[in-house]
Amino acid sequence: MTAVFRVGLVRLVSRGSTASAPTTLLQAQTNALPAAFMQKCNISGKTMRGGPRCPKVAPYPYKTKKYNVLSSIFDKTTKRFDENSKVICVEGPIASGKTKFAKELAAELDMQYFPAVDLDLIFINSYGFDMRKLDPELPPSCRSFDIKDFCANPKHVQAAQFQIRMYMLRYSQYVDALQHILSTGQGVVTERSPFSDFVFMEAMFRQGYVSRGARSVYNDVRQNTIGELLKPHLVIYLDVPVDVVQKQIKARNIEHEVKSKALTDSYLSDLEVLYKQQYLKEIAGHAELLIYDWSAGGETEVVVEDIERINFEQHETDPHNKKMLDWRFPLESEWCEARIKYCNEKPELMSYFNVPRYDVPELLRSADDGKVWRDVWFNAPGMKFRPGYNADVGDTGLLTKTKLGLNEPF
Amino acid sequence: MGASAVYDPLELLTNKGTRQPTFLSPIWNPMAGALAGFGAALFMNWGLRKPVFSGVQNHVLFTLIGGGAGYFLDNKRNEYLAKRDAVLRHYVELHPDDFPKTDRKKYGEVLESWVPVR
Questions:
Q1: Which part of the chain is the Deoxynucleoside kinase domain (chain A) (predicted)?
Q2: Does residue B73 form part of some domain?
């Protein structure tokens, strides 16, 4: 009886305070909540805002300046945050138009765009020297193997190592993205993410490109590392069916993709199935998810409008909401700790990739091969010393130089 | 001059005789410290994958710190030994009855003659 009375009262009260009558009981109760809980804080695009984003506080120069415990006393973290401080991951099959879309989205939302990773990040050193030129001097197990080699020969022994490296690069880039958002408050748009990378490994395994043992090592590595990251706020999946993907691959006419032995119909459909049935299902429990049929391309503006309608605030105000749990730091100091972890302790995060698994021969190299590789690799131009200290490629002033870069390759 | 015929405990703690420090003894520890500091600078550069002779101001600094540490420890040790002797001397002065001057004996006077019994 009391409950009925209460509902009636709530309806009366809410009718008085809002113009339109609430249609459901839930809405009625929400309307009756104090104004603070009603505050909406959604992502907004340039068009909607009517101008570029104006940061409240100047961004922290996180690429050149350390952020440690001492700096965290003077420089707090959430003061730079606004409604656009979100991580958006653009996902989708190969040649689905992710790059163009992600760039447009980042421009419209005033976010930082992080391009798709490539093994060039490993094979081209800090001075622009292409380490693939060393291949003739190296034993077969230590030669370079990038996307072109994978497309040409997907069943090569190094295919598994290739995918693990892709995961590592995505992970590294995602840490950079988190550094950016925590240090500047600007949102980030990434193309694919370490979270979806397992889709490729799984599809490669189903197609027989990699062995069961290699997949198991990959899963161990993933399990050991993935929990350190903060998951994205929003995942946008551009859905393109396999036949259209094949057409797009032909249309964009990149040689290794068109002639590829790896990108078969069954591989692509495996990718699609895994994306939809495993990744999207899994991430939907954490992040907001938008799926678009992108087979004929699409309008970025439409997506931006949809993003503007998502209420991200509800996940922060409701403690029982399961979404975006890892982004809830009750104390300012916890935000600062997270920022220290990503900005200052990236080498530690990357060290979690050292999972001691010695049971999969294709992921090991013999000691002799390793010796040859080490001798050749670290005597290449610009590799003898750490970046910035190589006189042979024109670094100067070394006699008195002591500066170390932040999170640079070692 | 031969040894005196009596043992004076105070004399034993005071008179250092004519012993001179060698050339190396006062500089050995500072030198070892300086060398260790220089080596540490080289090792640090090697460990950080820099050329070993980059940032030579660090080498100078580390060498000075190492040499200083050696010198400091040397002084500290000398002070400790001097203080210990002073304490002992003082004690002997306060308790002259416990430390009588004794005649000097030879072992022949201390040990009994050895008579093997087979």
A1: 88-318
A2: yes
Instruction: Using DSSP bridges, classify how beta strands A87-91 and A188-191 pair: parallel, antiparallel or unpaired.
Output: parallel
- Nearest C-alpha in A relative to B41: A402
Q: Does B54 sit within 8 Å of A401, measured CB to CB?
A: yes
Mean pLDDT of A352-375: 95
- The answer to whether the Cβ–Cβ distance between A391 and B51 falls below 8 Å is yes
Chain B residues near any Cβ of chain A (below 8 Å) = 48-51, 53-58
Mean pLDDT to the nearest integer, A56-64:
91
Taking residues B16-34, what's their average pLDDT?
91
* d(C-alpha A255, C-alpha A119), whole Å: 17
CB contacts < 8 Å between A and B, how many? 31
Q: Let me know if residue B19 belongs to a domain.
A: no
Contact A386 B50 (CB under 8 A): yes
**Identity of the residue in A385, A391, A399 whose CB atom sits nearest the CB atom of B49:** A385
How many distinct structural domains can be found in chain A?
Answer: 1
User: For B49, which of A399, A402, A410 is closest by C-beta distance?
Assistant: A410
pLDDT of A36: 42
Q: Each residue of A177-218: pLDDT tens digit?
A: 999 999 999 999 999 999 999 999 999 999 999 999 999 999
Domain containing A80 equals 52-291+320-356
Q: What is the pLDDT of residues A147-176, one digit of tens each?
A: 999 999 999 999 999 999 999 999 999 999
Better-predicted residue by pLDDT, A37 or B42:
B42
- Judging contacts by C-beta atoms under 8 Å, the chain B residues touching residue A406 are none
Give which of A312, A283, A290 is closest to A43, Cα–Cα: A312
| A402 Cβ contact list (under 8 Å, min separation 6) | B54, B55, B57, B58
CB distance A398–B56 less than 8 Å? no
Count: domains in chain B: 1
Residue A297 included in any domain: no
**Residue B57 lies in domain:** 26-101
Cα dihedral sign, A338-A342-A344-A346: positive
Average pLDDT, chain A: 88
Q: CA separation (Å) from A105 to A43, A116, A178, A238?
A: 12, 15, 18, 13
Q: How far apart are CA B42 and CA B66, in angstroms?
A: 13
CB contact under 8 Å between B55 and A401, yes or no, is yes
Q: Is the pLDDT of residue A21 over 50?
A: no
Other beta carbons within 10 angstroms of residue B107's beta carbon come to 6
pLDDT at A77: 93
Query: Does the distance separating the beta carbons of B57 and A385 come in below 8 Å?
Result: no
